[in-house]
Amino acid sequence: MIPYTANLRVGFQLALAYRRAAAVWVVGELALLVAFYFLWRAVFLSVPAGSFADRDFAAFYLYLLTARLAARFTGGPAWGFFAQRVRVGTVVYDLVQPVELEYALLARWLGQKAGQLVMALPAYATAAFVSGAWSAGEWRLGWFFLSLVVGFACAYFFEFLMSLSAFYTSAQQGINEAKALVVALLSGAFFPIDLLPDRYALLASLLPFQAFIYLPARMLQPSMPESEIFRGLAVQLFWLLVLAASSRFLLGRVRQRFNVQGG
Amino acid sequence: MTHYLALALAALRLQFATWKQYRVDYTAGVLTVLLEQALTLVLFSVIFTHVPQVRGWTFPEMLVLYGLNRMALGLADTLGESLWWVGSYAQDGSLLLYKLRPLGVLFQLLTERIHFERISGCLTGLILVLHGASAAGVEWTAGKVATVLLFVLLGAFIYLGLMILGAAVAMRVIGSLDAITTLWSLTEFAKYPLPIFGRTGAFLLTFVVPLALTGYVPAALLLDEHTRTAGTIALAEALVAAGAFFGLCLLAWSWALRAYEGTGN
């Protein structure tokens, strides 16, 4: 257990060490939230009844705030976990370590994201207060953070699976960008996926991406009944098992076929 | 100048040959551009299935605005893609190598990797403009075509300026590989009509970070319905603001580069 808790600690300290980087990121994220605020306020003002798809503006904006927070917390590294290390061959050090690679990496990544979350939370809370979204929330914070952590683990294993593609192809940039966009579209990072037309909403509900952002963000919505909380968590746990098992399987295949030229 | 032009042409030829070798990257790159645009179009369609217009802008009109914006971005992205890497170059010290070569660092970076697949963003942007304009009943004239071309070029410079600024920040804030991504968040404002941001927002987006010139202004000039609102923006001043913005981004870059001393040994 010690290597994993050490990795968790290292990740957290790494996040704190790059405080200025986190501050730069928070500024950018706030800019995005301001843009969304104006866009959706204009949309709600254009609806005669003042409600959009049975939501009022405050509840809708609260969804966007929590979805952006979850998107940040669950987002993977821009170029995957291994691309550079596979290219130069140093990934072999990761593969020969006497720990389970995916869990050691999970611990470090979780620590890093937790550090970033601690620094970013005040900005989101301020945005919620200033915009008035705060008043619309159903504050089930325990369920929200639990769902956020499970969503993080789902997103991590998905990212891990995609990162393993670096062992098979060097065309990483396109793959990573395409992946990021598919996740952004189908995870609910920019709007609730239930707003999609029926058939696309159905498709999104059958894919794992909803577990990353949409389900955690829904936890604070007033329209979410208590019974739905358990259903949401069950869906997240299902995808967590599927993705973790797939990662383990594919990593085994990679270990069998990967060959580093030494000398 | 002739020397730089010759080098740029040589880099263009070399990059084109390299680019043809990486077909998977090319296909994925085109796919990325299409998906990125699809993401916003899905957002628009979600909005417009519930409301007929947002602040007077209909779906086809929004397509024109967005398409023009994508054309400018496509051009800038083709050249400026390498600037996204400056943060990691600064972090591992390799940026020092660029400083030691007898060529402008920015020139080296811009010609280092040209992403021809990003031009597809321009083409799809053009399709959106043509489709939206046709649905909105725009009558094309030579003046309107010239307006579109001028603003697309201008918009590309504004986007390139933003990338340069992001790279400068990434150089100074080590560990912030997201610096450009962060600044890129500002481009979200460029996708929507200016009136939704209120007077202060409109001022900031026209005269401080002139993103309005990358989509809203040319779209409004193109769409007769909105020309009057675009006319309230002092265009000459906005163009000066765009030039000043680009100049300031270059100054920030020079300052960051001068201050960069590598990572030690």
Automatic annotation (TrEMBL), chain A:
Keywords: Membrane, Transmembrane, Transmembrane helix
Domain of life: Bacteria
Chain ranges passing through the membrane: 21-40, 60-82, 117-137, 143-162, 174-193, 229-251
Key word Coiled coil present: no
Protein name (database record): ABC transporter permease
InterPro entries: ABC-2_transporter-like
Keyword Lipoprotein part of the UniProt annotation: no
Automatic annotation (TrEMBL), chain B:
Record-annotated membrane-spanning stretches: 27-51, 118-136, 148-174, 202-223, 235-256
Keywords, alphabetical: Membrane, Transmembrane, Transmembrane helix
Protein origin, superkingdom: Bacteria
Protein name from the UniProt record: ABC transporter permease protein
